[in-house]
Specification:
178 residues, alpha+beta, Alpha-D-Glucose-1,6-Bisphosphate, Chain A, domain 4, six-stranded antiparallel beta sheet, 35% helix, elongated
């Protein structure tokens, strides 16, 4: 009975791994690049949303003026170039495994904004797009790539969630009378 259960588990396990793996990175149908994109409905004019976006940028990044290449209030666009640091964990030791550069574009319209996080590339001697990590038939494939996919996905979702939180309207505190 135990052998049958083990056999069934081993039979089903590859399909579970494939289904989980395929859904990790969102791939843009046109560009075939990993692209996190979404439109968020948010009360406010284009200018109000833009100012909230700048406030979020200034609070989230350590050096906001260096990472934001474009800040166009009239067109309602903020473009950010930054990086995600990857780690390898060996026992209790964490070792830097590489740096993945990304582009984040935030576009504002009255009542909504759109974020697009894309152009994820591993910084090496040459350009190494992270889409390559999805190809297990690649000659350079390493099992570490699966861990890197998880790290990049977690960081991208952290950035997006922080942006959504930062774009919420700030409640005005009543002035203290004394």
């Amino acid at each position: 009975m135990m052998k049958i259960r083990l056999f069934l588990l081993l039979l089903v396990l590859p399909f579970l791994a494939i289904s989980q793996e395929a859904s990790v990175f969102p791939i843009d149908a046109d560009s075939k690049l990993v692209t996190y994109q979404g439109v968020v409905q948010q009360n406010g004019s284009q200018d109000e949303l833009y100012i909230r976006g700048i406030d979020w940028l200034n609070s989230y990044y350590k050096n906001p003026f260096d990472v934001s290449r474009v800040r166009n209030r009239e067109s309602g666009v903020i473009e950010i170039k930054h990086r995600i640091e990857l780690e390898n964990v060996a026992g209790d030791t964490k070792v830097q495994a590489g740096i993945v550069n990304y582009d984040l574009k935030i576009e504002f319209k009255p009542g909504r904004y759109r974020y697009t996080l894309t152009n994820l590339t591993l910084r090496q001697a040459s350009r190494f797009p992270v889409e390559r990590w999805l190809d297990k038939s690649d000659q350079a494939y390493s099992p570490l790539w699966d861990n890197y996919i998880q790290q990049v996905d977690a960081k991208a979702n952290e950035i997006i969630n922080s942006l959504k939180q930062g774009m919420q309207p700030v409640e005005a505190k009543p002035e203290e009378k004394w």
